[in-house]
Amino acid sequence: MALPTWDHPEPLAVDSAPVPEYGAGSLADLLPTLAAGMSVPGATAAIPELTAADRNCVFLIDGLGWEQLKAHPDEAPFMTSLLASSRGGTGRPITAGYPATTATSLASVGTGLPPGAHGLPGYTARNPATGELMNQLRWNPWTDPRAWQPYPTIFQQADAAGVHTAQVSSPTFQNTPLTKIALSGGTFHGRLSGEERMDFAAEQLAAGDRSLVYTYYAEVDGKGHRFGVDSDPWRGQLMYVDRLVQRLAEQLPPRAALYVTADHGMIDIPFDEQHRIDFDEDWELRAGVALLGGEGRARHVYAVPGAQADVLTCWREVLGEQFWVASRDEAIEAGWFGPRVDERVYARLGDVVAAARDDVLIIASEREPKESAMVGNHGSMTPAEQLVPLLQVRS
């Protein structure tokens, strides 16, 4: 008897997705490793390639992925010269974590926990207490930050252990809920220009025998979203931030290490129906869906009660050749959100989770007009989005 045949390729296997390197080489492992090297109680050196230093500075460049940096040596000569130093001199990147998006990654950096534990699992996610979508970057609608993310940050733990701890960033971020739950501890110093941040970060690094300093720059990501990776505005920002890295590196005090990393990479998606699938105009994808969360390349799909299995089947049928499409439990079992998912986080994840493999987006032109118009995008587990540098300069 002949076996039945599929009239289209089988969907991508959930376990074929390249899961982030949680526990050994992800953003969540960086600060615990640095803190362990400064003898902060309870901190674990999770990235074995890194060597301890008394003074550590993390400079996070929003949106600068490993692949984008390697593709632009002329625009970033200083950082290019440091590529071999990445990840403790192995010349390798680390992984952002899933989804590869700013709110999730900054929470992973600051808490030292993967998304399934800290509980910021995407750009937007359902609040189980209200049933509404919550934007975790803008913290809208409002919810109690400490209830949403109750764990202490690594900065708080370091400060309590007597380490001089500081964050140097735009004054805009000083009192945001995301800063409070992810990056608080020690003292926040608002500085407007990139040059001011670099100079003050160096001063703060020298201010203690043991120091942990964090600084941040956003506009590489901003220009990538608006104009695309490799556009002239994006390349201009890369040239500028390369000079900032060099400026900071040249001011390191003794016994210091500077680590340059990012929260995610980025990929440009063409503006056509083949590459941008509009949820708001696709009746098949909308059927049985109560809420659409996440972002174009990393979707959380919340089904109406009783429709979970049908939504999963439909999304696999329609998208399964281009996206890894998993049920909530399958994504958890595969480790997409880390080795564990806390009980309070479980229902924040979509009933269906869809992560893009190909150069494609699920936009929502009516619900998300601004996001749907972006040229550069990120969120999934492809190397362009997931791999980030961990460049090192030591004094």
Count every beta strand, where a strand is a DSSP E run of 2 or more residues: 18
Could you tell me the strand content as a percent range?
15-25%
Number of H- or I-type helical stretches: 18
Query: Which stretches of 5+ consecutive residues score pLDDT under 50?
Result: 1-6
Q: What is the percent of helical residues? A: 25-40%
Evaluate the radius of gyration: 21 Å
Q: Specify the structural class.
A: alpha/beta
Main beta-sheet annotation: 6 strands, mixed
Shape: globular
Summary?
With 395 residues, this protein is of the alpha/beta class. 32% of the residues lie in helices and 19% in strands. The chain contains 18 helices and 18 strands.
How is this structure best described in words?
With 395 residues, this protein is of the alpha/beta class. Helix content is 32%, strand content 19%. The chain contains 18 helices and 18 strands. It has helices at residues 30-37, 66-70, 77-81, 86-89, 102-111, 115-118, 145-148, 154-160, 177-182, 194-206, 219-227, 232-249, 283-286, 308-319, 328-333, 343-346, 369-372, 383-386, and strands at residues 55-61, 94-95, 124-126, 133-135, 164-169, 187-190, 211-217, 256-261, 267-268, 276-278, 289-295, 298-303, 323-327, 352-356, 361-363, 376-377, 387-388, 391-394. It has a 6-stranded mixed β-sheet with strand order 6-5-7-1-8-18, with helices on both faces. α10 runs parallel beside α12 and α11 packs antiparallel against α12 (232-249). The chain is globular. The termini are far apart. The model is unreliable at 1-6 (pLDDT under 50).
